[in-house]
Amino acid sequence: MHDIERLKDKALRLTQSPGVYIMKDTNGKVIYVGKAKVLKNRVVSYFRNLSLQNEKVKKMVSHVEDFDFIVTDSEFEALILECSLIKQYNPKYNILLKDDKGYHYIKISNDKFPRISLSMRKNSDDAQYIGPYISSFAVRKAVDEINRIFMLPTCSKKFGETKVSNRPCLNYYIKRCMGVCCKNISEKEYNDIIDSAVKYLKNGSVSSLENMKYEMDKAAKNLDFEKAIKFRDRINAIEKINQSQKIYLDDDKNIDVISFAVIKDKICFVILKFRNGHIVDKDSHIFNNISELDSSIENFIASYYSENYGEMPDIILMDYDGLDLDLYSSYIQNKTGKKVKIIIPKKGNKKKLVEMANSNATEYLVSRLKYKSKEMGGLQQLQEILKLKNPPARIEAYDISNLGNTGIVGGMVVFENGLPAKNLYRKFKIRTINIRDDYGSMKEMIYRRIKEYRKANDESFKTVPDLILIDGGKGHIMSVKEVLEKENFNVPCFGMVKDSKHKTRAISGFGGEISITSFKSAFSLLTRIQDEVHRYTISYQRKIRKKTNFEIKLMEINGIGEKRALKILKHFKSKDELLNADIAEISKVAGVGVEKAGEILNFVKSS
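Above: the chain's sequence. Below: its structure in token form.
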């Protein structure tokens, strides 16, 4: 019996991004590949309320030992990748479950003027079929794009018949159709366009674009500018689609795309493998207790390719600038006999591929460490914005609250892995400042925090934070920086700036303000931290204020001065606790006689 709860727990930690999930049996064999618009929701559904599933799904789930996943940028990309992986692995349960999902084809009709359309089945006619594909969405998307790129007709008219009206429809006027009905294109010219469309549908190869560019140049030289413009528009449309489509590459070379993610002392490498322009596999590796990032990355590249994992690529794409590219290229060639070029792309489609690999590395590591994807997204963006070495696993935030020159307090909240660790929150009653001075109060609080760290008595102060956030601007940061430098406490420190409505607006650094409004995850996380530290500090200030008022009232009793009032308040944490105390205990705590203790109790009851 497989541990369904373990699989469900793992699924609950998945991202809500689209992607492909890969079910594996006890031998690590792929038994099912599926796509999802929301990975978390789809995969969780397999392991929740299993009794309500149909028998085919139940049987498949009963053989699932583990699952893997690949994150994509869109459902369309997920569908294309799903088809590719099914062809590669031929999973057992994709065949058994085919009745539930259905298969679909791209049909090229056998007419004088052929049409390209979606078909639910492969009929016994003379039409040409491309497929099968798992979902109608992928086929419909591909058909729509091809018809739009090549301006093919999608109406119900039958061309080549004498009765066809030569009045074009709206699609012709908005340049979505070449207007076959106007009889301004020959049958041969039309079929040449269909051949180009089919060639591109089958492989999206570079050669189809090169051929179109050749025909465009040829038409221009022959002064047939109208024809050249059609080729130009077709080329532009294809290139636009290719820029946003990362599952296919207009490159016949074999390419490995490598990226990594780091959380605390763990690093995850992900390798996306493209062969002949198609993604065929994802390889993931996690290593613990890394000491130096540079050496970890270099050692992984060297060991991975020296062991020759599968077919060697022609090109390796990476996002790590610290690698000596020529050195490692020569090393791989020496070990494998294959010359491999290592590239760090700075822009374009290849840069997007590296970002896709990085997204997968992050999601895989987050899932394995049982973190939540939403919080890790915020931490990663903070790392990027603040140029930190790693995502800040522990963040400490500080705030000051006062009412005039009295009740000056500070609060420290701790967020671990993007979530509040309330057991580590701490309060500070400011001791050295008796006037309203936020900078001086903040300096005292940070100094006392560092002092407690060196004592190592309090669990909350034993760990050095990865990031300190101050509720305030540049002045607050400068005051804290002075203490950090003096005490040699090397922690990055930034301010959280609010707008006129007391809402988080930006991060303040030594070089000025950094806007975060375009970083959704980081903005959300920073707002939660700032709201939490403000809430915690102001609630402590109000509590102190109440105690101070009660202390003043106690001093109205004859014979009870400031010291005795403080003793009473320190022992009896609240008014209710004092009311429930007996005379003897009050007498002992306050250091007064029984009669005076009774007077104190009566005063409290009447106040």
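The chain has five domains: 4-101, 133-244, 255-368, 385-546, 555-606.
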